[in-house]
Design brief:
two-stranded antiparallel ribbon; single chain; Rhopdopsin 7-helix transmembrane proteins; glycoprotein; 378 residues; 13 helices; disulfide bond
């Protein structure tokens, strides 16, 4: 060890060794010659990613995998096996959970890639990884929009506007069909292609090739996957909120005519229906924006903007955001369902959820009412 090494101390020396090791290679150096075509020139301008970055991200993905499989698995299990929850509307929640589980199937591949610091299996596995992400991403996005439509129909037209089982099945089939065009086209390189990105341990569609076909693909893809679903979400939740406000106003006017305080049920500490719906709608909208805005930003910047800001670390952030949201997405819908909470209490008491069965509570309330207000015959 030379004098300069002795002066900096053992901790600084360790970081210096890591830095020197990283500088020896550029990103993509460990891809064999026959697969160098997979590494785009943009990534070659960065040094190889330190192994501790790979291991840290693999650990994060492992925790997300466990959380998502557990959460989405419970949602699928309870909603599909409980008779009280077998409704057309709840079929969409199950569908969303299935898409999120499909997204989680990428994670074991990613952990293996992170261990080897490159995509194991190269182009074949790259296509598999990106296909899983594309189907689950596109499908999950449009399923959120379908749920917004279903909520609007159910609440604004409760008698004759509810989605039937056959309509729900058709809409679910549509969500899967929606995800196929921009999965099949790049998978077979008809339009666009799947390529490694970021740390070169994940794959997505190409947004860095400088040609008009790639730019047009990115633009259409963002409209299809991001802007259209977000427009549908905003449209139906705004209409739903408007319909609920109109209904609440009518109830207040009717109550005034009848000289009573209110005709509406005010649960949750007096919160109005419109406020509760607004909270759920805002949460869903916020999660959607958190999940897909980073992806939309990165792809649009890669195709049309300043690519210098797209560092390997920066381009790994969108995937983490999307997968984090997929862990909690179905819970937002499910946890607002009293019957689902009651099933959790019954089947998984160790979760700590305490919810009375709505049917039992309703029966008890009716019995109490009858006891307190006996009929004239009694």
């Amino acid at each position: 060890m030379d004098n300069s090494t002795e002066n900096i101390g053992p901790t600084a020396y360790a970081f210096q060794m890591i830095e020197e090791e990283t500088k020896e290679n550029i990103l993509g150096y460990n891809y064999p010659e026959e697969y160098q075509f997979m590494v785009q020139d943009h990534w070659r301008s960065y040094p190889a990613i330190n192994k501790y970055w790979h291991y840290s991200l693999a650990l994060i993905y492992t925790m997300l995998f466990i959380a998502s499989i557990t959460g989405n698995g419970i949602v699928i299990w309870i909603f599909s096996t409980s008779k009280a929850l077998r409704s057309p509307s709840n079929m969409f929640v199950i569908n969303l959970a299935v898409f999120d589980v499909m997204m989680m199937l990428e994670m074991p591949i990613f952990v293996l890639n992170s261990y080897h610091h490159h995509i194991v299996g190269y182009q074949v596995v790259c296509n598999v990884y990106a296909t899983l992400g594309s189907i689950s991403g596109f499908g999950g996005a449009i399923t959120n929009a379908v749920i917004a439509y279903d909520r609007y129909k159910t609440i604004s037209c409760p008698l004759d506007g509810r989605v039937t089982k056959s309509q729900a099945l058709a809409l679910i089939m549509m969500t899967w069909m929606w995800s196929l065009p921009f999965t099949i086209l790049p998978a077979f390189r008809v339009w666009g292609k799947f390529v490694p990105e970021g740390f070169l341990t994940t794959c997505s569609f190409d947004y860095l090739t400088e040609d008009s076909a790639t730019r047009m693909f990115v633009l259409v893809c963002c409209i299809w996957d991001y802007f259209l679903p977000i427009f549908i979400l905003c449209y139906y939740y705004s209409r739903l909120f408007g319909a609920v406000r109109t209904h609440e106003k009518m109830l207040r006017e009717q109550a005034k005519k009848m000289n009573v305080k209110s005709l509406s049920n005010k649960d949750d500490g007096g919160a109005s229906v419109e406020i509760r719906i607004a909270k759920v709608a805002f949460t869903i909208f916020f999660l959607f924006v958190c999940a897909w805005t980073p992806y939309a930003f990165v792809t649009l910047v890669g195709a049309f903007g300043d690519r210098s800001i797209l560092t390997p670390v920066a381009t790994m952030v969108p995937a983490v955001c999307a997968k984090t949201v997929s862990c909690i997405d179905p819970w937002v819908y499910a946890i607002n369902h009293p019957k689902y909470r009651a099933e959790l209490t019954k089947r998984l008491p160790w979760l700590g959820v305490r919810e009375k069965d709505p049917d039992t509570a309703s029966s008890s309330s009716t019995a109490t009412s009858q006891t307190q207000h006996p009929t004239a015959e009694a």
